[in-house]
Amino acid sequence: MIRSIWRIWKRFRWKNLVRVWAVFMAIALVLLAQTLGIHYGATKFTLKYMARNEAIPAQNAIMGQRATNLMLVDSSQDGVDEAEAMMKQVLLDMKVPTATVDLAKTDPDDIPSLNRYRTVLIVMPELDSLGDELVSIMRWVEGGGNMMLAMTPEKTGYLDAIGPQIGIESSAYDYVMTKGIKPARDFMLGGGHTYMFSGPFKSSLSLNLNEKATVEAVSANGHTPLIWSADVRSGRTVTCNIGIYGKVVRGFYASAFSLLGSATAYPVINSAAFYLDDFPSPVPSGDATYIKRDYGMSIADFYSKVWWPDLTKLAERYGIRFTGVMIENYGDDTKDAPVRQKDESHFSYFGGLLLKQNGEIGYHGYNHQPLVLPNTDYGDEYAYHQWPNRKAVVASLRELIAFQKSVLPAATASVYVPPSNILSKEGRQTIGRDVPEIRTIASTYLPSDSKLPYVQEFGVADDGIVEAPRIVSGGMVGDYMRLAAESELNMHFVSTHFMHPDDMLDPDRGAKEGWAVYRKGLENYLDWLEASAPSIRMQTGTECASAVQRFSGLTVKMRESANEWEFDLGNFKDQAWLLLRANHGTPGRIQGGSMIRMTGNLYLIKATDSTVHVERKAGGAA
Length: 622
Known about the structure:
Blueprint: H1 2-11, H2 15-36, H3 58-62, E1 69-73, H4 80-93, E2 98-102, E3 119-123, H5 133-142, E4 146-149, H6 157-162, E5 168-177, E6 180-183, E7 195-196, E8 202-209, E9 213-219, E10 225-232, E11 235-240, H7 250-257, E12 263-268, E13 271-276, H8 289-295, H9 299-318, E14 322-327, H10 345-356, E15 360-365, H11 390-407, E16 415-416, H12 425-434, E17 440-441, E18 459-460, E19 466-467, E20 472-473, H13 479-491, E21 494-499, H14 515-532, E22 538-539, H15 541-553, E23 555-560, E24 564-570, E25 576-582, E26 586-591, E27 593-599, E28 602-607, E29 611-617
Parallel strand pairs: 1-2, 1-3, 3-4, 4-11, 13-14, 13-21, 13-22, 14-15, 16-17, 17-19, 20-21
Antiparallel strand pairs: 5-8, 6-7, 6-9, 9-10, 10-11, 12-25, 18-19, 23-24, 24-29, 25-28, 26-29, 27-28
């Protein structure tokens, strides 16, 4: 039988055409398989969500714990409210139980006994409000206490009186402009570089330090000390002379606080996540002038032949696993029932490639209209439309979820990114109440001049939704975002970044400079991140959110002896991450986890047990 078929085939005059046809069919089948994504499985997550009822908001986790830190404020002084709010969030995230006394409402004589606390944090520029209590505080420090001045001090008789003890040789009445901050290389992750402030002003006291001071950070010009410590007999003081208080610099104050005591350990997230907004989506409309200028091709060809291949190379080089968040269409209809997108090829092709990379698909919107109701006024800021009611909001999300499951059945989505980071109170409540598929919201971390963006903290909300904001964006990571990135490496040991495919269509986002320049800027940021935090985990949005869950509820209690630091971890799940600064003594062997040295006396601990023992070598009485 086989020989008969072979004889017929040899006599067949069109066999060469059949061969050509077979080759084309094979190519077509391969392309079809890629387009349909049939070779791509579900994302393999290295870290999975905890159950909603197991994830604990930070405030709940720390509630009821005995205060180990006393924060003294004077709300009648200028700037104290802002600095106090910043330090409260820093201490909450570091899980430092704190009692606060406001000297505008409490007589200094009624300050609790300092012997109850490990640390005292003074949040006021003019120390005169403390009166003679300042003398008591310094005596307590001499006996082994730890005090930090969080605000740039004013030159008064009280500052002059304690100046020599806290490292100040002389000071003037004037202030100097601080354009940026340069932390010491062995003080902070990312140290040794200068990070510029946005809108600098004369915020730092003009002063000189004595030999007692150990300088940890200086101004951009190197002339003004901004963070320093000083040992005072058995205790220690830390002084911050930055004079800027806000979200963008929290990590510098957290690092300063960690200089107190023999050691400080605090929970961190340990995650780097990278988002691609509007991806996959229909090919966006826009000005392709610069794409044609540089590549002579259409928008669609640029995405498939240049943009995505370049991102794939970056992902392989740096270990990135992108999280793309899908838009079904770019229509602005918010009143009619959602209509299914008919052209699925772009979604299945790019979505499949993303899954093949072991990346993740999330949600961005049925269309690009933020989830707001008629009571939200966009003013002149945006031309978006409002949704008429909550029912319409839910219907739009239900359509997006169904469409994604239809076109990419292997995708497991849980992360929602609001269009333009805009999400109203009602939209947020609707997600938590009516859309259980959404476990995480990844909006924005940094505030802006607009009141429209949904600004988040890292943590777990009361309704169980994980708040996992994005910090920096685009390829042109400018001074303000680079400062925030440095701060957050040391505050939460986290880096979250996002970019849009259509950045190359918008001159305001890098189109004019071109993709090559944009890509180089992104590489520059990734090089900095890799050098500053080589141990950070490259994760998807879900994995980052799962890490945030574990961070949110974790608490740390330290016991110390001459030979050991012991850390009891409350609400420990299966793993936890801590930054440990060893100020007196050198860490040795560890039980209950593993540890690596990051820089100077700063270590990263992975805890695998609820109790961690770290050997304390070379010193220090308990």
